[in-house]
């Protein structure tokens, strides 16, 4: 009997997660797949370029919800997704990560009695001021199948009363994509140089940064302090900063809206360009979740501008350090790393490029 799996994605970090699961399921002839894009991210360089580079099929349905407040965006996904589920009648809906599209789709399915699987379940920052933490908590309560990337996810879910028989430790699907795409990313380095958006860098001779969390960029005073710290770090090595649209809006009309030799402000980068840059960065400074994981896999030092992380293995085993929102700590930690201080680190268990295959096997075997 055929199994119809419907995947829901919406925002940039979802695209890297769905790709290996779709590819693994496609190898099973019993599986039929549908891909729904909610349209939460809609810019070419936040969405289309990722579909192209990751080899994803064009979405079967685009809900075109676009931007809005949290309630508006979540409600739009729900009201536009419900008829799709009713019409397409999937056996299983897979949702990814912790964005608004994830929780909205899970809620629709739970109410319709359609089985939902959550890929990247169980992560907790224990900080309910983060919109993503609310999305994670609610999605995991609603899901019928919970695929965790690391053991801490299983521990968190057990503490919240989720029955162990629903939970499967499968490893990290984001790392599947990294493993698969790394050779193509490295091929973008030519003669020991990498050129992007009019600038050229050499291996180990730059710092790479991304920032888009509301807690960092929506508060003008905080954003100003972070930018000042990055500018200082840029005196040692140039800082490359591909800017998320949210951050771009917040930077408008500030003194940091213009490029300098210390701070290179770029448009958002494609998956391959960003991975190529991460691989040879002296240091990555971020508030992203996925980048904490990617730097851990690559063995590149990472400083996270957050008080907490839902990905603790990147700190206990990996290369990640939390510097909080204290810019003195950021400057000091960056200084130590740029002066050669390296911590011992290892790749977490099951971050081996095969998480998507494990998920596919479980689904096909009727879990
Ligand atoms: C969302 C996720 C976050 C994830 C991030 C990755 C939630 C709650 N947050 O945050 O977990 O880390 O995606 O990027 O789901 N915009 C554009 N073009 C786009 C998309 C957004 O210009 O293609 C602008 C809009 O003005 C929008 C703002 O960016 O209001 C924020 O977008 P939104 O999807 O609301 O949240 P992100 O900050 O991207």
Largest sheet: 7 strands, parallel
Rg over CA atoms, rounded to whole Å, is: 20 Å
Fraction in beta strands: 15-25%
Question: Could you spell the SSE succession in H and E letters?
Answer: EHEHEHEHEHEHEHEEEHHEHEHEHEHEHH
Mean pLDDT across all residues, rounded? 97
> How many runs of DSSP E, i.e. beta strands?
15
- Morphology call: globular
* DSSP helix fraction: 40-55%
Q: Count of helices?
A: 15
Write out the strand line-up for the largest beta sheet, numbering strands in chain order: 3-2-1-4-5-6-7
Low-confidence segments, given as residue ranges, are: none
N-C termini distance? 15 Å
Task: List the defining traits of the structure above.
single chain; 367 residues; six-stranded parallel β-sheet; binds uridine-diphosphate-N-acetylglucosamine
Description:
This protein has helices spanning 12-26, 44-54, 70-88, 100-112, 131-142, 151-159, 173-186, 214-217, 220-233, 245-251, 271-279, 290-298, 313-316, 327-338, 355-364; strands at residues 3-9, 31-37, 61-62, 92-96, 115-119, 145-148, 167-169, 194-196, 199-201, 207-210, 239-242, 263-266, 283-286, 302-304, 320-322. The chain has 367 residues and is an alpha/beta fold. The strands form three sheets. A seven-stranded parallel beta sheet has the order 3-2-1-4-5-6-7, with helices on both faces. Strands 12-11-10-13-14-15 form a six-stranded parallel beta sheet. Strands 8-9 form a two-stranded antiparallel ribbon. Helix 1 crosses helix 7 and helix 3 (70-88) crosses helix 4. The chain is globular, with a radius of gyration of 20 Å. Uridine-diphosphate-N-acetylglucosamine is lined by residues 11-13, 40-43, 46, 67, 98-100, 131-132, 212, 244-246.
């Amino acid at each position: 009997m055929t199994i119809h799996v419907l995947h829901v994605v919406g925002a940039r970090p979802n695209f890297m997660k769905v790709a290996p699961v779709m590819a693994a399921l496609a190898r099973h002839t019993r599986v039929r797949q549908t891909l729904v894009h909610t349209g939460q991210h809609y810019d070419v360089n936040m969405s289309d370029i990722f579909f192209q580079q990751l080899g994803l099929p064009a979405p079967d349905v685009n809900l075109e919800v676009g931007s809005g407040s949290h309630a508006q965006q979540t409600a739009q996904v729900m009201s536009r997704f419900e008829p799709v589920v009713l019409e397409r009648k999937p056996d299983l809906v897979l949702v990814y990560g912790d964005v608004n599209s994830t929780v909205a789709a899970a809620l629709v399915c739970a109410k319709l009695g359609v089985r939902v699987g959550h890929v990247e379940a169980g992560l907790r920052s224990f900080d309910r001021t983060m919109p993503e933490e609310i999305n994670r908590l609610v999605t995991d309560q609603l899901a019928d199948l919970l695929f965790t990337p690391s053991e801490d996810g299983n521990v968190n879910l057990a503490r919240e009363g989720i029955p162990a028989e629903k939970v499967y430790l499968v490893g990290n699907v984001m790392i599947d994509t990294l493993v698969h795409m790394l050779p193509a990313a490295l091929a973008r380095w030519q003669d020991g140089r990498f050129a992007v958006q009019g600038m050229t860098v050499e291996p180990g001779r730059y710092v790479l940064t991304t920032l888009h969390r509301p807690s960092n960029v929506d508060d003008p005073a905080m954003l100003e302090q972070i930018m000042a710290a990055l500018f200082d770090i840029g005196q040692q090595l140039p800082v490359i900063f591909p800017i998320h649209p949210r951050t771009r809006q917040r930077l408008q009309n500030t003194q940091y809206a213009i490029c300098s030799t210390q701070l290179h402000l770029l448009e958002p980068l494609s998956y391959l360009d960003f991975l190529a840059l991460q691989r040879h960065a002296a240091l990555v400074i971020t508030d992203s979740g996925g980048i904490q994981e990617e730097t851990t896999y690559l063995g590149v030092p990472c400083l996270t501008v957050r008080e907490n992380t839902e990905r603790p293995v990147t700190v206990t085993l990996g290369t990640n350090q939390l510097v909080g929102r204290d810019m003195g700590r950021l400057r000091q930690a960056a200084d130590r790393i740029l002066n050669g201080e390296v911590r011992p680190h290892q790749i977490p268990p099951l971050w081996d490029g095969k998480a998507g295959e494990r998920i596919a096997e479980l689904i096909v075997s009727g879990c």
